[in-house]
Design goal:
Length: 340
């Protein structure tokens, strides 16, 4: 505590007005660089004695960090998916962790729909073709796959999966889903739908969308065996977590033509808690420029949405230091669809 106020470290840039709100009840050690998140070393150099931490996707909170921050009492995560945060270690050390569960699904679902259309309608190679100077008017090429009537399988029917399903129903897609915890869902106004097995979904879908958390059971859920169960020419879309899919297997499937395309907003290199995570995106993926659409984790990158997410995380800090339980408090390790 500093000047009878808690000391809070903020590891990434946040809007000025949100920072001012936190400074009303805390002494803030804040990163004001919009391009570079603080490393663990930066955090410890500036705030090893901090009482609170406002953390983001770039951060990893584990037993080692907690040992180096003995005064830490709460971690407020400006994220929905909290797989980079060791909840069990925090519980053991009586550190309260909160996340923001309800604000990211909509913009992430919007981006997912955009990625599907960009990939299946060949928008990026078509854009390059126009810019090349070779375009002389309509020609019968760049034919793609439409959504109306197309079987689209969603793996994971938590908040993100349902938001994606709503958008796909509006496009008249034939939506099917698999969720190991949910047998039936209601998507208003389209009705109630029964889930199917993962093998059925993989074999029946032309487009497969991953919308599930990264936990032990879902690591590399989509691997060589899973890809072999898909129809030749299937499109795979990943707005969830990079390591839910085996990126090396995807690269092989793109080269062989087993997969028609892959779109991703997330990559295995971001999954900080995995001890053997890759440090870069596989070359086979980066080189498949005509069959991939990649974005740099833009799922929630809408200015007002990011403001709202950070504002909610700041409010969780205020709640904690008022002696209240934060609204987004997490009580156990991430094991359910709630984590996406």
């Amino acid at each position: 505590m500093t000047e009878n106020k808690p000391k809070i470290v903020i590891t990434n840039w946040i809007h000025d007005d949100i920072l001012a709100e936190i400074e009303e009840f805390a002494v803030c050690i804040a990163n004001r660089d919009r391009t570079t998140p603080w490393s663990r070393e930066d955090i410890l150099e500036r705030g090893a004695d901090a009482d609170g931490l406002l953390a983001f996707m770039t951060d990893m909170v584990d037993e080692a960090l907690l040992r180096e921050m003995p005064n830490l009492k709460t971690v407020s995560c400006a994220v929905r998916g909290y797989d980079n945060f060791d909840i069990d270690a925090c519980v053991r050390r009586d550190v309260t962790v909160a996340h923001v569960p309800d604000l990211l699904q909509g913009p992430t679902a919007d981006l997912t729909l955009g990625a599907i259309i960009a990939l299946t309608r060949h928008m990026l190679p078509a854009d390059r073709y126009v810019r090349s100077g070779n375009f002389e008017g309509w020609r019968p090429h760049f034919y793609g796959l439409g959504l109306a009537g197309t079987p689209v399988g969603i793996v994971g029917m938590g908040g993100l999966g349902r938001a994606i399903a709503k958008r796909l129903f509006a496009c008249e897609a034939n939506v099917i889903f698999h969720d190991r915890q949910v047998d039936r869902v209601r998507i208003d106004p389209w009705g109630t739908f029964e889930g199917i097995s993962l093998d059925e979904l993989l074999s029946e879908s032309r487009i497969v969308i991953l919308a599930l958390p990264l936990v032990q059971e879902t690591h590399h859920l989509i691997d060589r065996d899973a890809i072999a169960k898909m129809q030749p020419g299937t499109y795979l879309i990943n707005p969830a977590r990079g390591s839910v899919a085996d990126e090396l297997a995807i690269g092989e499937a793109l080269k062989s033509g087993r997969l028609a395309g892959y779109a991703a907003d997330v990559f295995a290199m971001e999954d900080w808690r995995l001890p053997n995570r890759p440090r870069s995106i596989p070359r086979d993926l980066l080189d498949a420029t005509d069959r991939t659409v990649f974005t740099p984790h833009l799922g929630s990158a809408v200015d007002e949405v990011r403001r709202d997410i950070t504002k909610a995380a700041a409010y969780h800090l205020a709640q904690f230091f008022r002696g209240e339980t934060p609204d987004g408090a997490i009580g156990q390790a991430a094991t359910s669809a709630e984590a996406v």
